[in-house]
Amino acid sequence: MDQTPTMTALRRLLPYLKPVRGRLIVSGVAVLCSMICGLTIPLVLQQILDGPVARKETGPLPWLIIAVAVLGAVEALMFYVRRKLVAGPSTLIEARMRADIFAHLQRLPISFHDRWQSGQLLSRAVSDLSTLRRFIAFAGIFLIVNTLTLALGLAVLFFLAPVLGVITLICAAPLVFISTQYESKYATLTRRSQDQVGDLATVVEESVLGIRVLKAFGRGPHLAKRFAAQARELRGTELAKIRLLALLWGAIIMLPELGIAAQLLFGSLGVANGSLTVGTLVAGVTVATYLRWPTDSIGWLLAETNQAATAAARYWEVRDAEVTITDPLRPEELPADGVGAVRFEGVRFAHAGSDREILSGVDIDLRPGETVALVGSTGSGKSTLTMLVPRLADVTGGRVTVDGVDVRDLRLADLRSVVAMAFEEPVLFSASVRENVALGAEDVTDEQVREALRVAQAEEFVDRLPWGLDTRIGEEGLSLSGGQRQRLALARAVVGKPKVLVLDDPLSALDVHTEAEVERALRSVLSTVTALVVAHRPSTVRLADRVALLDEGRIAAIGTHEQLLKTSAAYRDQLSTLDDEPAEVAS
Amino acid sequence: MSTVSDEQWRGVAAEDTEELDRQVGLKLKRRSRALLGTLLRPHLRWAVIGLVLVFLENAARLAGPLLIAVVIDTGIPNAIRGDTTVMAWCVVAYAFCSVASAGLWATFLNISGRIGQDLVLDLRQRMFRHSQRLSLSFHEHYTSGKVISRQTSDIDSFTDLLEVGIDDLLTSVLSIVGITILLLTLDLDLAALTLATALPLFFVTRWFLRRSNQAYRGVSGRTATVIVHYVETMNGMRAVQAYRREDRNRSIMDGLNTRLRSAARDSLDVVATFTMSVRMVGNLSLAVVLAFGAFRVADGTLELGVLTAFTLYLRRFYEPLDDIAMFANSYSSAIAALEKISGLLEEEPDVREPKQPKPLPPHRGGLPIEFTGTEFRYRPDTPIVLTSLDLTIPAGQTVALVGPTGAGKSTIAKLVARFYDPTGGTVQLAGVDIRDVSDVELRGSVVMVTQENFLFSGSVADNILLGKPDATRTEVESAARAVGAHDFITALPQGYDTDVRKRGGRLSAGQRQVIAFARAFLANPAVLVLDEATSSLDLPTERVVQRALESVLADRTALIIAHRLSTVLIADRVLVVTNGQITEDGHPQDLITGEGHFAALHTAWRDSLA
Questions:
Q1: Nearest Cα to Cα of residue A552 among A578, A570, A534, A529
Q2: Taking 90 as the threshold, does the pLDDT of residue A410 lie above it?
Q3: Domain ranges of chain A
Q4: Which residue range or ranges hold the ABC transmembrane type-1 domain (chain B) (predicted)?
Q5: Across residues A26-36, what is the average pLDDT?
Q6: Residue B378 backbone dihedrals phi, psi, to 5 degrees
Q7: I want to staple A557 with a disulfide (CB 3.0 to 4.6 A). Which of A356, A440, A549, B47 is the partner?
Q8: Range with the largest mean pLDDT of A182-191, A225-234, B187-196
Q9: Residue B337 has pLDDT above 50, yes or no
């Protein structure tokens, strides 16, 4: 087993453990105490049976009984103390680690988030962290304590009678081996079954989300067959798991019991020939029973450790991702009288690790207050270009300036307060309308929110919502139409009175009927700022003062819509409909 | 929360109601039990065998301490006198019991596991087939999220219950009952004492079941809030960063995290208190039993072996209690899941397969469609969408539907594709009521393409093949060529065999739509229905698709709903639909020159291009 890298991942948790190490150590000591108490009870039992009971003198009996009661009570209390002590630190570590990964993720660039599915990130913050919590609260401590208990118990048995010790050892060794073997096999099967459950869930999701297509083509039964085959495969894996589990249980039940049978045989022979007492025999059997859990849990605890190490490695994998877009060391200030002039100067861009340039030398000069539409075929890099302005991505060559300052020389907070952006898919959060418009900004008044809503032509429908500005929307709240969502996103863009607005085709994700209402909103929004708008349709293009055609990573043409229609064949190809063609041929 | 009346509990109606009146609650329970019954029935024989095995296993396991008692009380004294037979037999019996117990338990696990897995498989398949059978109207108002979680997380709760172990519960109950009986037969007084000391456990367990259920709900509910916030932030990362929402998000996360943490601590505390109490009661009752037992052994009224057996049984008496507690949590969530599952299974599809289907007449090319007095409303409590529609579309005609949103264009299209059934009148295909056509034949003849361009996981070719599963690669390619998809498909890393990734995430919306077209072209139906199918295409692609449409539609019957008039102009006939009625009907050129709605639309559109 390749343990080094994963163990390193576990070791890196130490800084989190440090502030709570006192409590963790005390809780470990508490478990040990409780186990020692548990192991001492059989010894007192031996004293009772061989002393007062065998000799029929009840004098010391009350003291011994009190000893049993006290030991029993201490054992139980120590269990409680352990759990109580560990609950605080383990949940605290989990919460801290989650807060830290969350904060880190918010700083990581968009390129990272494009690469990673949110499900992957979620499992690191939820299930991996709860694995780690379990490990810290449970497996980590018990791995040590159980091994100690096992050693201690065997020592007690050897002290009572070597033959009893030898027998227990002979039975315990294979059990540890079997359970370790089992855990690794079981882990493989569990992973396979998890994958199969995931695949099955995908088919279910698709069968429901694609129900219209399936009904339209009558392919429901077709998919049902595939589903049945996959479900049967999953059943096979689960049955294999069960067979393995049954084998393990067989061993766990049989080996210690056979050990007790052997103890009974040798013990009673010993009692018969006088080398052992009945009390010793009973104590031996009791200790052996007590050692069952520490013995067969070792395999499971090792597996938990392994799992925790993997979880830690997965956690650090994200935490180690580099934050590439950061505040500059010596930030510059924006000119106080800035008007929102944006320039792209020889801008180049390629994704990290790829040598194919998406943008290879883009020059655009946006005059203050002007709206420029960006047109180009799918994959021509329009969206990438827009992301460079608020630094959701950084150029790999050339520069982007706002009012003459390179965006990379500005503090991110300063830059993003003068540049606002809206996206193809309007993102709403599960919060009130007010919060969705104001987002992070704390100094936004209701009046400013309303003004922004008015500019985005959204005030009217917001007022009609059941609780107005306080209506909770988003995934957890009231659902809005695509047009309403996009208008809220536009209100959000203008609420901070930015000087520059970058819009990644806010109309494209809309169905045709709501296009018009958003277009109106857009027209009113654009009148206030310098804007760069990605456009697919003639209707959006007409909102702009000038149009830039992006082709092969460069600006192929720039000018007004009418100019470009006349001069550029590529532009006509992008923006004319079938119906325009006869007219063209005619002219 | 309002309570649910007597009738509303049927189907999925009661799902969101938290407070059910007793009657409804009982009915829901009965329904879940009935479902469990039908699932279990085929496995009844094996279930009985399993029960017998687990019974025998318990007997074998409980015999152990008894045998030890015999060894101590009879075997050893005999052995001291030189007679080892009793001792030897007891040891052999003990060994036999341990082997038997292990073997029986392993066998039982295999049997119960198989039954459980068969139940789950059966349930999964029933749910899947049923959700496919249910009509679109159901899917639309019930929402996809719920149908999915019925088939995923609810089934998971059910399997959790199987895994956490009905077997463990069974054997726990059996061993508690078995031990009680054994103790009572061994020594009545001591047994009475033991049971009396165990009495507090009854209350502790009851307290725990209630509290742990609360704690469990607290943790899962608050975990869900953390997950929602987390996923929302990750999915909206562009907006988060562009609008500097990071700090606000972090403080929200801190709040949720703290709440989750306190719930988690509560639940750990509950478990801590419970395990401590069980252990405490167990150990103290050991002391009590020892006290009385030892005195009685000392004065000769109790055998030493019996006392030993008691001490050994005590431990086993308290052990299973932990399992019962575990079981309680998964039981309550599994029951809730089963109630929802049985509700979904009870829903009947509105659009049903005919019992005695009538065949369509043999045909080449298109089929005629006829609406006679067709009336439609989506649900009884929503307004009428179509009022007595009469419309005849001859075979091979291409008809465009135009009109404002909500006028009923999509409804007409969906009725032809039989996504819904009319609430009055009929829709006929080649003279046969569409409700009498078998599903296979209907889906082979009528295909609808919508704006929603859903792709399934698999390759590009797989997705096109959905139109005609037995098509050859050449046919797939020529369908793709016809709609101008061939070039971008071959430019993908593995061409037609490229995995489209989840929901076609690898492709743009336009590309997905073109593939949806290729799929429909491959199916080559007699009737093609297009509902806003071209609206997500960019203009160059739309031109290609439109040319392809013109050639394909030449001999088919087609119904086209399009926002863009360029698409409408390829039709043989235009219908203007207003308020569920056809207000204009004619050749596009004729309508343009007229003075109606369509002419106005056309002028507005021409102006917008200039």
A1: A570
A2: yes
A3: 8-161, 162-275, 342-586
A4: 48-333
A5: 87
A6: -70, -45
A7: A549
A8: A225-234
A9: yes
Other C-beta atoms closer than 10 Å to the C-beta of B259 total 16
In A, minimum Cα distance to B416 occurs at A216
| Strand-by-strand arrangement of the B527-531 sheet | B446-450, B527-531, B557-561, B398-402, B573-578, B581-586
pLDDT in tens, B324-335: 666 766 777 787
- Distance (Å) from the alpha carbon of B377 to chain A's nearest alpha carbon: 19
How large is the average pLDDT for residues B249-267? 89
Q: What is the DSSP letter of B533?
A: T
Q: How far is B142 from chain A (nearest CA, A)?
A: 11
CA A7 – CA B200 distance, rounded (Å)? 45
The sign of the CA dihedral A69, A71, A76, A78 is positive
What integer best gives the mean pLDDT of chain A?
84
| Chain A residues within an 8 Å CB radius of B295 | 58, 61
pLDDT tens digits along B416-474: 988 889 998 999 988 899 999 988 888 888 988 887 777 887 888 988 988 888 889 99
Mean pLDDT within A232-254: 89
What's the pLDDT tens digit per position in B184-227? Answer: 888 888 888 888 888 888 888 888 878 877 787 788 778 878 88
Residue type, A239: L
Give me the DSSP letters along B19-84. ---HHHHHHHHHHHHHHHHHHHGGGHHHHHHHHHHHHHHHHHHHHHHHHHHHIIIIIHHHHHTT--
Nearest Cα to A540, choosing from A505, A512, A491?
A505
CATH tag, B369-609: 3.40.50.300
* Secondary structure (3-state) at A549: strand
B229–A430: do the CB atoms touch at under 8 Å?
yes
- Beta carbons of B152 and A201 less than 8 Å apart: yes
CB contact under 8 A, A45 and B443: no
Cβ pair A217, B519 in contact under 8 A: yes
Nearest to A260 by CA among B96, B94, B101: B94
Which residues in chain A (384-403) have CB-CB distances under 8 A to chain B?
A: 387, 390, 392
Per-residue model confidence as pLDDT tens digits over B105-149: 999 989 988 998 999 899 999 988 888 888 887 887 776 777 877
**Rounded-to-integer distance, Cα B78 and Cα B89, Å:** 12
ipTM summary value: 0.83
Q: Give the A window 158-177 contacts with B, CB below 8 Å.
A: none
Residue whose token pair is 């025999």:
A281
Our CA-based measurement puts residue A363 at a distance from the nearest CA of chain B, in whole angstroms, of 23
A-B CB pairs within 8 A amount to 429
Among A residues 294-353, those touching chain B with beta carbons less than 8 Å apart: none
CA angle in degrees (0–180, nearest 5) for B262-B264-B265: 65
Show residues of chain A in contact with B265, CB under 8 Å: 87-88, 91
Q: To probe the interface with B, which of A578, A581, A584, A587 has the most B CB atoms within 10 Å?
A: A578
Query: Which pLDDT belongs to residue B98?
Result: 92
CATH architecture of the region A8-161: Up-down Bundle (1.20)
A504 touches A424 (CB < 8 A): yes
